[in-house]
Design a protein that fits this description.
There is one protein chain. It is built from eleven helices and 14 strands. The chain has two domains: 219 residues, Rossmann fold, CATH 3.40.50.300; 72 residues, Alpha-Beta Plaits (2-Layer Sandwich). Helix 6 links the parallel strand 7 and strand 8. Helix 3 packs parallel to helix 5. The relative contact order is 0.13. The protein is α/β, with parallel strands linked by helices.
Length: 315
């Protein structure tokens, strides 16, 4: 299967000398949901701007479904829908006219059936005759998506799609993105909400200081970089770890709480740690240490993201 998007050695240095992107390489497959995570100023919006043709790259190349986005700009741009962060709309225009106008900008023939389908999918059909200024913030956000989908793109860029919307609407939009993927649309989103990427993405890229420091399947990322933690509440407090237990376990993995009432064992997911938990429990039993309760915790995507960015910032 040929990639729908190929980004090759992409760099961007502004006139001030600030380097926003540093040799970014990325391929995205058709029908994929790809999440790009990074702190403010990491280069996410610059990358989207270059792919969409609103920002000129310093070096490198972008190919959209076989079309170079510089030498074959019209063909490449026609395949892309962009939902920006800002709620920039003509306040006195109606919903229907705004969406129809967006379609016309790409030279597409009028297609009322398609526009109706898009507006219904976004729960905007009943608002089609309303002026945009009468819409709520969440409805305006949906309208931006409708405008981006009006010309039937194959790739949809969502730049912070749920910023400033309530939790219920955010979950509705997640469902919409999944439905778009089922129709064959490739979705690339940037987000500050780690939960958003964890819920929706097939693959995740992490960008920091203009460099794409990691691209991984979500499940593989959680497996490789995740950590598990077992907390054991003891029946009787311990003054210190028993010598045999301390020798058998890495001091970096097992810790006794200050009051001696809890043992915490931390290990890498998928690194044989599950088996060592059993060995730990056997060692405790052999030492006559009773357990009152047990709790487990696994790293979230947010934990992994914070760790990656912190390591890169310290480097």
């Amino acid at each position: 299967m040929h990639p729908i998007l190929e980004i090759q050695d992409l760099s961007k240095t502004y006139a001030s000398g600030f380097q926003a992107l540093k040799r970014v390489n990325l391929t995205v497959q058709p029908g994929e949901i790809f999440a790009l995570l990074g702190p403010n100023g990491a280069g996410k919006t610059t990358l989207i701007g270059i792919v969409c043709g609103t920002v000129r790259a310093s070096t490198g190349r972008v190919v959209v479904a076989g079309h170079d986005n510089v030498s074959d700009y019209r063909a490449a741009r026609e395949l892309i829908g962009l939902v920006p962060q800002e709620l920039t709309t003509d306040a006195f225009e109606t919903v229907w006219n705004a969406v129809a106008f967006s379609r016309g900008l790409f030279g597409k023939a009028a297609n009322p059936a398609h526009l109706e389908k898009v507006l219904r999918a976004l729960s905007l059909w009943d608002k089609r005759s309303n002026k945009i200024l009468t819409l709520s913030g969440g409805m305006k956000r949906r309208l931006l998506i409708a405008k981006a989908l009006s010309h039937e793109p194959r790739i949809l860029f969502l730049d912070e799609p749920t910023a400033g919307v309530d939790v219920e609407l955010r979950r509705d939009m997640w469902q919409l993105v999944r439905e778009l993927r089922e129709t064959g649309v490739t979705v690339i989103l940037t987000t500050h909400y780690i939960e958003e990427a964890e819920q929706m993405a097939d693959r995740i890229g992490v960008i920091s200081k203009g460099e794409l420091i990691l691209v991984e399947e979500k499940t593989e990322l959680m497996h490789k970089l995740g950590r598990k933690q077992v907390t054991l509440q003891l029946q009787q407090p311990l003054a210190q770890l028993p010598p045999g237990l301390a020798d058998a376990q890495s001091q970096a993995q097992i810790a006794l709480s200050p009051d001696g009432s809890e043992l915490t064992y931390t290990y890498e997911s998928g690194a044989g740690g599950d088996g060592s938990v059993g060995a730990l429990l056997q060692s405790l039993a052999a030492a006559g240490i009773g357990i009152r309760d047990l709790q487990t915790r696994q790293s979230t995507l947010e934990d992994i993201f914070v760790s990656l960015v912190s390591e890169r910032s310290a480097a």
